[in-house]
Structures are given as C-alpha cells and as structure tokens.
Write a structure and sequence with these properties.
The chain is α/β, with parallel strands linked by helices and about 375 residues long. The protein has one domain: Rossmann fold (3-Layer(aba) Sandwich), CATH 3.40.50. The protein contains 14 helices and 15 strands. Strand 5 and strand 6 form a beta hairpin. Helix 1 crosses helix 8 and helix 7 runs parallel beside helix 9. The structure holds nicotinamide-adenine-dinucleotide (NAD) and thymidine-5'-diphosphate (TYD).
Length: about 375
C-alpha cells in the first residue's frame, strides 16, 4: 500500500470546517504532522461538541490558525477563502448526534444543509471565473454511511452505488448536503469528492457517543445505557484510519467521485459494550492506582463493569445495521485500516485513562465556562 504521506505533494492551503470536533480535530493533527509545509485554517463555531483543547497545542505553536465562526456566515466564509488563499476545503462541520437530531431537527437542517450550501456558494465565487475553475482546488465533503439507511442481516454492505434512504433527521440532513455537493459537481463542475464513512471511534470523542460514554460512565460507576436489545450492528473504524482515507482521497481521489470508507469491523452494540467493559476490568487488574482514581468503578472492588449494563428504551427509528463495502477505496487508492477493533478499542480506553484533563472539563461544564468567557455563550444555531 502506498501512503500518500510518502509521496511529494504540492503545498496546499486548507480550510478545515469543524476542525475542533472529534474527527476534524484528529484530521488537523494528522495533517499538521504529515504535511508540515501546508497551511491549515480551522473554522469552527465551538458548539457543545467542539473542543479547542484538541488542537490548542497546534494553534499555540502557529501550525494552525483558528477562526471562531459559523459555516452559515456567508460573509465570513467568503472573506476567509479570499484572504487566506484557501485552495482546499475539508468540510467536517456538522451537527452529528442522531439522538439530538430527533429532539431538535432544525439545528441539523441549518448547519448541515444551509452550512454546506454556504460553503459551496462561496467556493464557486472564489474559485470559478467565467465557468473556468482555478487549477488545483478541491472541495472534500465528509459524510456518513447513515445516508444509505438500514441493512437487513444478510443484505450486501453499502457501496458507492447504494441508493440513498436516510432514516433519521441527522441522516436526512447529511443526505441533503451530499446531494448539494453532487449537484455542484454536475451543474457547475466543482472539483469535489465525497466520503461516506462508517462509525468512528478513538481519542477526542465527545462522551455522548456510545464508546466514550461507556468508558466515562464505567469509570464513575454509572449505568451503561444500551438502547433496545443492543443487537444493532455498526461497522467501526478507528478515527486516524478515517483521517488517512481522507488524505488519500485529497491526494489521489478522482474529482466528482464518492468513496465509501469502513473498517471491515461489523459488531453488535452489546458486543462493543462487553469489549469496553473487559478492557476496563483488565486495566484495573493491572494498575492498582486506578482504584484510587475511580473508586466508584465496579472494577475498583473487583466486580465486572458489565454489571452496569442497563437496557433502556430504544431510539426512535433506530437503524438496525450499517456496513461498508470499501472495495473502491481499497482498489483505487490502496486504503486499508491499520487498526482492528481490538487494537483500536484498547488504544481508545488507554487514551481516556491518560487524558482525563481533556474530558473532565467537558463533563463538568468548566470547558463551556471558559469558552463563554472567550467567545460569549454560543450554542449551536437552531
Ligand atoms: P462532532 O460533533 O464531534 O464535531 C462537529 C464540529 O463541528 C464541532 O467542533 C462543532 O463545534 C463544529 N460545528 C458545528 N456546527 C457548526 C457551524 N454551524 N459552524 C462551524 N462549526 C460548526 O462531529 P464528528 O463526529 O467529528 O463528525 C465530523 C463529520 O464527520 C460530520 O460531518 C459527520 O457527519 C461526519 N461523520 C461522522 C462519523 C462519526 O462516527 N462520528 C462517521 C462518518 C461521518
Ligand atoms: P452513536 O455513538 O450515537 O452513533 P450512531 O447513532 O451515529 O451510530 O451510537 C452507536 C450505536 O450505539 C447506535 O446503534 C445507538 C447505540 N447507543 C446505545 O445503545 N446507547 C447509547 O447510550 C448511545 C449513545 C448509543
């Protein structure tokens, strides 16, 4: 496999939207390390899901310029593209949590659809003159496998030609954004690529999503909520593998093309819960200091963390199974995940144990207090 990081590339000037979020933050770290001669500008509204701490060291040493702002702010986006000579947009910014989309769909339509539209309009204005596009520009749209709906147990995994059938307001808003990007390619010739990726996990993941929630709750002896029977299947990909996939698409992906990205790692939610519990049990058995740090964890008294499992009411419209066929990105760009679920989950548990300073302020509200002082109290737009 040829990693794009090994090949010489021209210097780029990237605008990374949502670069203070989970995947965006990991991507910014990946890019700064692999492409130190490129310029990185992050545009992030710092909603509840954004955490500047993820990229603060890079901002402090001048490797990343951080702009606090909203992707739906057309004047700001246009000014950024012009003033910073942006030639590449990597678009992560989104409202991303399905449960929140069920409670407050308007915020998802606004950010995910209107925000993407705003970026597309600004990109065309900045990069296209009289129908001719500036050489070397690229718009990469980061999307999800959830746009394809739910698979039956024996149905073939999603691929690039799978018809869209989004089921949640989140998935519908991402599908709308994907269709806008496609239309800009088809109608105006925008040099764009799209990736539809499966569930990510790993460092810097906000603890409302399943895996970080399990870790943080287990450490505090809180219930581990399993929706319904816990037999819903997801295809899990370690976040840095997703970052490598996007790097490859930016380097060698064909303009106008879509790539489905996955981990070849289909697992039922309950199996994930049990794996995370076993890992935490094992860490406590190996390290007596954890008992002092987390006395409320069942493992601190030698009991299994899985005793905390609590089956709760199922999510409305809960998709039963997602799975990705990654044949295209494997064959055309040489992408394969480097982490298995076992190695990735083990790394993830170790990261949360070693980085309480990152997640504790997010959990106890002190991070939001700090952001309010810095930027004013600003939650996601609804
Ligand atoms: P996240 O919720 O952790 O981060 C989203 C980031 O976007 C945050 O930093 C937030 O502050 C920022 N943001 C939100 N609204 C904004 C706005 N209006 N203007 C500017 N910034 C705004 O999300 P994530 O899990 O990192 O997902 C990133 C992207 O990847 C999303 O587009 C998501 O749909 C997609 N994706 C996620 C997964 C996954 O498993 N997490 C899988 C496939 C695709
Ligand atoms: P989540 O991390 O919210 O990602 P997504 O909904 O985008 O797949 O959820 C992953 C799976 O875990 C999903 O099937 C819902 C389930 N889940 C629970 O069972 N309990 C929880 O507390 C959460 C947050 C999710």
């Amino acid at each position: 496999m040829v990693d794009s990081a090994m090949a010489p590339q021209r210097a780029r000037c990237l605008l990374v939207t949502g670069g203070a979020g989970f995947i965006g933050g990991n991507f910014v770290q990946h890019w700064a390390e692999r492409h130190p001669h490129d310029t990185l500008v992050v545009l992030d509204a710092l909603t509840y899901a954004g955490n500047l701490a993820t990229i603060q060291p890079l901002v402090d040493r001048g490797a990343v310029a951080f702009v606090h702002g909203d992707i739906t702010d057309a004047a700001l986006v246009s000014a950024l593209l012009a003033d910073r000579a942006i030639d590449t947009i990597v678009h992560f910014a989104a409202e991303s949590h399905v449960d929140r989309s069920i409670a407050d769909p308007g915020a998802f339509v606004h950010t995910n659809i209107v925000g993407t539209l705003t970026l597309l309009v600004a990109a065309r204005a900045a990069w296209c003159r009289d129908g001719a596009w500036t050489s070397g520009v690229r718009f990469h749209h980061v999307s999800t496998d959830e746009v394809f709906g739910s698979l039956a147990p024996n149905e073939a995994p999603f691929r690039e030609t799978t018809p869209y059938a989004p089921n949640s307001p989140y998935a519908a808003s991402k599908a709308g954004a994907d269709h806008l990007v496609r239309a800009w390619v088809h109608t105006y010739g925008l040099p764009a690529t799209i990736s539809n990726c499966s569930n990510n996990y790993g460092p810097y993941h906000f603890p409302e999503k399943l895996i970080p929630l399990l870790i943080v709750n287990a450490l505090h002896g809180k219930p581990l909520p399993v929706y319904g029977d816990g037999q819903q299947v997801r295809d899990w990909l370690y976040v840095t593998d997703h970052c490598r996939a996007i790097d490859l698409i930016l380097d060698r992906g064909e303009e106008g093309r879509t790539y489905t990205v996955g981990g070849r790692a289909e697992h039922a939610n309950l199996d994930i819960v049990h794996l995370v519990c076993s890992l935490i049990d094992a860490r406590f058995a190996d390290d007596p200091a954890l008992t002092q740090r987390y006395p409320d964890c069942p493992a601190a008294r030698g009991a299994p963390c899985r005793s905390l499992v609590s089956h709760v009411t199922d999510r409305a419209g809960h998709d039963r199974r997602y799975a990705i066929d990654p044949t295209r990105i494997a064959a055309e760009l040489g992408f394969e995940p480097t982490e298995t679920l076992a190695t990735g989950l083990s790394r993830t548990v170790d990261w949360y144990l070693a980085n309480e300073a990152w997640w504790r302020p997010v959990m106890d509200g002190s991070y939001r207090d700090w952001i309010s002082q810095q930027y004013g109290d600003r939650e996601s737009v609804s």
